[in-house]
Amino acid sequence: MSALHIATPHDVTPEAALGAIRAHRGPILLDLDETLYLRNSTEDFIDSARPRLAALLLLRLLDALKPWRWTGGEPTRDVWRVRLVMGCFPWIARRWRARVASLAGAHANRRLQAALDAPGATTTPIITTAGFHPIVAPLVAALGLPQAQIVAARLSCFADRRDGKLHMVVGALGGETVARALVLTDSAQDLGLLNACAHPLRAVWPEARYRHALSGVYLPGQYLTHVKRPGERYIVRGVLQEDFAFWVLCSTALAASPVPHVAGLLFLLVSFWAIYERGYVDNDASGARFEAEPKLSAAFHEHGIATPRWAPWLWALGCGAIGAALVRWPDPLQAADLAAWVAVLAATQLWFTGYNRVDKGTRVWLFAGLQFARAAAFVVLVPIVPIGAAALGAHVLAKWVPYHVYRLSGKAWPEAPFHLIRLMFFVVLAALLTFALGWSAIFNVSALALLVWNLFRAQQELATAIAAARRLDRPPMPPPS
């Protein structure tokens, strides 16, 4: 939400703000988003993009690239977002003009409008907003202020967003006007403008709602990224660099066509996680409903992420069919392949549903099954090398051991060196595999690649363990003088 929950010296109740508006006889500088208009105009504009899924995919790609790092940081992010959707979906401006009347009718601040229209009011407010002029101009007109002066950010540059509202308003109106004005806003980010005016008012309207653009569009991974593990970059760090890396290293040596094979594994990964993520959604919902002290992120109570029941299955089936066809290439896809993959997805969902509905002591044992599904679901379609089985087993065990300790202790998740534990399990299981199958089990490219990857991922933990090691039969070295 743009109205940051930070106290300022100028905070007032909405009722006090309305009274001050009626009494003021000088210039009135009025914020738009979540003040006169009880939503965010930029988000609602982007929400007008069609097709919605294509727009959401482009915006997620933009969020991954973060080009605003080079144009002034987070304040300039919306410039990039609006430029992108206007460039890729040029019909969005027409759709926006068609929507503003209904949006203004549904989300206008009626109490504020009534105060502005009160008998004796002689000043037309000046709309001062960090929104963008092509977006806010038709909206302000639809709100009943077609003659109002608008001071808004430009899309042609980053300076307005980067330098802040005070710089933009003083440049448009002059410092003398600002010094005589009443300023009403909801945002703590406008503190500079509030400090420069005669009558500063910051009021947060309880009716205001910040709704993220395209929040009603389902996309696999959004719940995981924004609700279950916000701020952790879990898809990259926990899925691609962990699960997917082992899928590739354990199977590519046996693939007839390595490039289609890896692409197919990626589609299978999306398919699997569309269903596995549904387990996370159900886990949070079940925890909120049945547990006395559920472990829920702060984002759970205020997120706007779409979590439909059947759309994940459409993604899972579509991506699964593509993935199965690619990993079978150049051989044709068989119906048995699709049946096997659907069975894995259904079993995963059923297992996760059961896990979410049993006590925490029982979950210790079911958790191993969930990790096994994450690590080895692809093997129903793809053969793996023998050393790959040891690597996947080590991966599962290294995830299960800290969870077991966590549930037994009843305290916080233990600070266990996960990658070092996995490396140790891999070496042990590889040794056992060598005893069973001979040296050929570990003298191959796949074994070398898996060892190198495990060492690479565990390098920091391994270095820490070596540095902390001490011999008991030797006195410690004296510190340097």
Q: Low-confidence stretches at least 5 residues in length (pLDDT < 50)?
A: none
- The 3D shape can be described as elongated
Please report the total strand number as a whole number.
Answer: 5
What is the assembly state of the chains in this entry? Answer: single chain
Q: What fraction, in percent, of the residue positions are helical? A: 55-70%
Amino-to-carboxy terminus distance: 56 Å
> Main beta sheet, described?
5 strands, parallel
Mean pLDDT, as a whole number?
91
Helix/strand/pairing category: mainly alpha
Rg (CA only): 29 Å
Q: How many structurally independent domains?
A: 2
Order of the strands making up the biggest sheet = 3-2-1-4-5
Tally of helical segments: 20
